Amino acid sequence: MERRTAEYIRKHELLAPGERVVCALSGGCDSVCLLLLLTKLAGELGLGGVSALHVHHGIRGEEADRDETFCRALCERLGVPLTVRHEDIPAIAAESGESLEEAGRRRRLEIFVEEAKRLGAKVAAAHHLNDQAETLLFNLIRGTGPAGLAGMKPLREDDRGFTLIRPLLWASREETEAYVRARGESWCEDQTNRSGDNDRSCLRTEVLPVLEDLRSGAARHIAALAEKQAAQEAFLDRLADKALAAAGRPDGSLDTDVLRSEDPVLRQRSLALWLERNGGLRDVGEVHFAALEDLLEGQSGRRTDLPGDRSVLREQQGLRLISGTAHDGASAAEEDRNTDLSADFSVTVFPAGKNPEIPKKEYTKRLDYDTITGTLCFRTRRKGDYLTLPGGGRQSLQDFFVNEKIPLGERDKVPLAADGSHVLWIVGHRISAAAKITDNTNTIIEIRYGGDYEKTSSWGSDQQ
């Protein structure tokens, strides 16, 4: 176990002589195994120091207190410095609207970053090959591309200067348990890891055991696929990096002729790398890459907008990434002069009654009047406009236009009914989920649009 872990660390260059490492210690078998290995290998690897970090999530009561006590005793016995952080994850989740699992994962990572910066160290997590197999299956069932098949990486770096390493991705859960027992140590069992209350737990406790019964070594085979895919992804990234460099122009734009000469797969990967280095890829999907492909074949002056307040402008022989607001619509002064469309709308307010009728008309909408908290106005778009989504989250009007592929030239013409920055109705499209009529609606406002927009607009369809 020690030899193979040392070989894995060297193979993937996880730790260099003189570097410090913080072991994320939950008290479970895998993290105990990792801490035992790191302390054992510290001299052989020439490490600058090994410490541990335990996060108490404030969730499991006495069981969580037991884990903390266990970690303190283990680190004292091993002579390892330990940092313990107490967090109120239920309160954090309630404030953010996340699940306990999501809030715990996010806050835990934030603490990892803080501790790594404080000590000038890398953080080691005890994910093993069973976790890798679970991750790959989870990515498959929720929908993933080739990158998702690579699973977790042995080494993960981000733009905050934080490095997370996973020295045990080669080892099975059975091997970690055997090593801890061989060292004469014990661990704490977290019962939530064994329950089937969420997707990952179901994969861990029900799906993977069935796959092992069907074919012995199934988890190891799945994890091996992830490692092979990760190697192929790294190879393709190197090709994309070269293609991106070849397409780069001195002024920072990309040469469209060079991009068009590339294989479509490599071209999309190069564009993805370009966007990742200039604002990231969050919320960027296939629809946006399809729009970029259209832009490559389009005329100079065209533009496609992207999530993250960015746009790509088609120039004579290139693509240029610009701020999403750099050329977006009218100036503030023009916006104040030209957006009032009150003359094109009419409204009627009346009691809801029982089972209120909701007309299926494209240019007449009925909304819950009591959800309007400010002054209702009728206008075209302004910076900061947003819709409320059915799940309760928000979507910027800009992202709605981008996702619906609404032509840039049409966006300043779209009539809106708004309550401040909250868009209640995008005429010809949809209404905000927050304004929909429900069984609790007491008063209804009927809004009718009578302007000439319906005669000129040809894109999209209305959605209730």
The CATH architecture designation of the largest domain is 3-Layer(aba) Sandwich
Average pLDDT figure: 86
Task: Please mark out the parts with pLDDT under 50 across 5 or more consecutive residues, or reply none.
Answer: 325-338, 455-464
Strand order of the largest sheet: 3-2-1-4-6-5
Protein structure class:
alpha+beta
How many individual β-strands?
Answer: 18
General shape: globular
Annotated CATH topology of the largest domain:
Rossmann fold
Strand content: 15-25%
Task: Name the helicity range.
Answer: 40-55%
Number of helices: 16
Largest sheet: 6 strands, mixed
Any overview of this molecule?
It is a single chain. The chain is an alpha+beta fold and 464 residues long. The protein has 3 domains: 2-223, HUPs (Rossmann fold, 3-Layer(aba) Sandwich), CATH 3.40.50.620; 248-323, Uridine Diphospho-n-acetylenolpyruvylglucosamine Reductase, domain 3 (2-Layer Sandwich); 332-456, no CATH class. Helix content is 42%, strand content 18%. It contains 16 helices and 18 strands. The strands form 5 sheets. Strands 3-2-1-4-6-5 form a 6-stranded mixed sheet, sandwiched between helices. It has a 4-stranded antiparallel sheet with strand order 7-10-9-8. A 3-stranded antiparallel sheet has the order 11-18-12, with no helix packed on it. A hairpin with a 2-residue loop joins strand 16 and strand 17. Helix 4 (89-96) packs across helix 5 (100-119), helix 6 (129-142) packs across helix 8 (199-214) and helix 9 packs across helix 11 (264-276). The N and C termini lie far apart (60 Å). Residues 325-338 and 455-464 have low confidence and may be disordered.
